[in-house]
Amino acid sequence: MKILLQIILLISKLPMRIHYVFSDFLFIVNYYLVGYRKKVVMNNLKNSFPNKSNQELEVICKEFYKNFSDYIVETVKSFTISSKELRVRVQHINQDVFSEAKKEGKNVIMLAGHVFNWEWYNALATILPQKNTFAVYRKVNNSFWENQIKKIRGNYGNTAIEANEVLMHIFRNPNDGNSAYMFVADASPHVNMVDYGVSFLNQKTPAFIGYDKLATRKDFHFIYCDMKKVKRGFYQVNYYRILPDELKFKEYEVVNKFHELLEKTIQKHPDNYLWSHRKWKYQHAIKKMDNK
């Protein structure tokens, strides 16, 4: 594994233009030769966009594989890319929401989706007014790759926290405006943890709800991260505060609002979402649904 890591690091140091040559090759392999999870991708697209023609879905599918291949090489680049280069490649819009949270003395909970390229949020830590930034990751079975994920998420002054530990950390940490937590919040819960579901992309969707406990018990600033791909290798993120309809969030309200915002992001650029995951695999386990 150490040899593999050294190879990855050597590749990571190559210029981005070389990485995108690799990406073009990966696209041909994934889309034309191997067809990596192509049935899953097309099935997810058909269910999410029932009013689109097969031809339209095929176009989205093909563009998805191009973006997915870019995501793979950009993730490899994440091992060595500098914060300076990331600040050029990822433009952060409406940063005032973080300053407002700091002034009010309230910690920040950032909610993002699996929109490419979510791994490049990390350099935001170098420009936030919050002193402490924490990137949440999910434990993987392979210890080697878990360590690599922690390294990527822990770059540029971030501290990587495993998802099963983050709620306890947040509740123990003073709510003083000095901390920001980054969640990729549309992850699918394990079947044993499925409880609540939302209406998302025309489907009953199991929802991860851990952050809902934070919304109903603590007065944090919840911020939605609206990411879009401007062009190859360049992204833009708009930040919006998620507010409750009344004084405080009701149960599941922030979960519903996050998925509504994420759906709007996906509708604008559907090829830029991670369609290869089996997000709707555990629909049958949903016990409660939103009111849509």
What does this structure look like?
By secondary structure, the protein is of the alpha/beta class. The protein has helices spanning 2-12, 16-34, 38-48, 54-77, 83-89, 96-104, 143-153, 163-172, 210-217, 253-268, and strands spanning 90-93, 108-112, 132-137, 158-162, 179-184, 196-200, 203-206, 221-231, 234-242, 288-289. 43% of the residues lie in helices and 20% in strands. It has a 7-stranded mixed beta sheet with strand order 1-9-8-2-5-3-4, with helices on both faces. A 3-stranded mixed beta sheet has the order 7-6-10, with helices on one face.
H-E order? HHHHHEHEEHEHEEEHEEHE
Enumerate how many helices there are, as a single number.
Answer: 10
Structural class: alpha/beta
Identify the overall geometry: globular
What's the rounded overall pLDDT mean?
A: 93
**Helix content range:** 40-55%
Beta-strand percentage range: 15-25%
**CA-atom Rg in angstroms:** 19 Å
**Main sheet: strands, sense, barrel:** 7 strands, mixed
> Any idea how many domains?
2
Uncertain spans, ≥5 residues at pLDDT below 50?
Answer: none
Overall strand count:
10
How far apart the termini lie comes to 48 Å
Spatial arrangement of strands, main beta sheet: 1-9-8-2-5-3-4
Protein traits:
292 residues; alpha/beta; seven-stranded mixed β-sheet; 43% helix
Chain-wise SSE layout:
Blueprint: H1 2-12, H2 16-34, H3 38-48, H4 54-77, H5 83-89, E1 90-93, H6 96-104, E2 108-112, E3 132-137, H7 143-153, E4 158-162, H8 163-172, E5 179-184, E6 196-200, E7 203-206, H9 210-217, E8 221-231, E9 234-242, H10 253-268, E10 288-289
Parallel strand pairs: 1-9, 2-5, 2-8, 3-4, 3-5, 6-10
Antiparallel strand pairs: 6-7, 8-9
